[in-house]
Every structure is written in structure tokens, then in C-alpha cells.
Design brief:
- This protein has helices at 28-38, 77-81, 103-112; strands at 17-22, 43-48, 51-57, 98-100.
- The protein is α+β, with helices and mostly antiparallel strands and 121 residues long.
- The chain binds iron/sulfur cluster (SF4) (2 copies).
- One iron/sulfur cluster is lined by residues 7, 10, 12-14, 84, 87-90.
Length: 121
């Protein structure tokens, strides 16, 4: 049997963001939406497989000062589904295939695909 995994010392990495699936951008209007997302602080966009997501890095209000969940028994279903084997600390590799941390990352990725996105400077 493998070593038992622990949350000790992690400071709850899994409770400090949310991500939501978005449509794959296909046209100029969609690209403008991605640009809008990416000009915001602590917002990123990533691709995992064929799916696109927006991520907001923001800590959960239900974390206490010791990084424990204050509503553990009543926590949302998505929190319950997280397995420690695949979590941010113990999981193998990154959750994304491509990460856009800013406009420049997105513009470069699209340029490599032959799509010119206007540079916001
Ligand atoms: S499940 Fe993983 S990411 Fe979440 S607190 Fe525990 S060790 Fe940290
Ligand atoms: S509700 Fe609890 S388990 Fe879910 S993100 Fe917030 S602190 Fe973490």
C-alpha cells in the first residue's frame, strides 16, 4: 500500500481558486473576450485537452486562519469530489496543457496558429 497523503503544510492550494469552462474562442468577438479576461489581475485562461477554462485566483471565504475548511461537512459537492491523489500538491503534473497568464501568452499562442490578435501594448 502507498504512503498516506497529507494536507499538512500545504496551506490549502485547492481552496484558492475557481475555474469555469468557457467556449473555445473561434472568432474576433471571442478573442476580444479572452483579451478582456486576461487584462484582469489574478485571472488566467487555460486549455486542458480540448476544453478551455477561465481561472480566478481567489481564496475561499470558508478557509480559516489555519487553512482548514469552516464548513467541511456542508462544503460544495465539487470540493467533496477533489481527491488528494490528484490535487494541486500531490497530483502528477499540471492540470493544464496550455496556460495563458496574460495577453502576451495568448497573442503568441494564436500567432503560432496563424491567427493575428491585436496587441494591447
Ligand atoms: S487536498 Fe492537496 S491541495 Fe488541497 S489542501 Fe490537501 S494537499 Fe493541499
Ligand atoms: S468550501 Fe471548504 S473545501 Fe470548498 S473551497 Fe472552500 S474551504 Fe475549500
Amino acid at each position: 500500500m502507498g504512503k498516506k497523503l497529507s494536507c499538512e503544510g500545504c496551506k490549502a492550494k485547492c481552496c484558492k481558486y475557481i475555474c469555469v469552462e468557457i467556449d473555445k474562442p473561434e472568432d474576433k468577438e471571442d478573442y476580444e473576450h479572452i483579451l478582456w479576461y486576461l487584462v484582469h489581475k489574478d485571472v488566467s485562461v487555460f486549455i486542458e485537452g480540448k476544453e478551455w477554462y477561465i481561472q480566478f485566483d481567489t481564496p475561499c471565504n470558508k478557509l480559516d486562519e489555519k487553512y482548514m475548511c469552516k464548513i467541511y461537512d456542508k462544503r460544495p459537492e465539487i470540493c467533496k469530489k477533489l481527491s488528494i491523489e490528484n490535487c494541486e500538491k500531490h497530483g502528477a503534473g499540471e492540470a493544464y496543457d496550455v496556460l495563458f497568464k496574460n495577453v502576451e501568452d495568448f497573442v503568441k499562442y494564436m500567432a503560432d496558429k496563424g491567427v493575428e490578435i491585436r496587441d494591447l501594448g
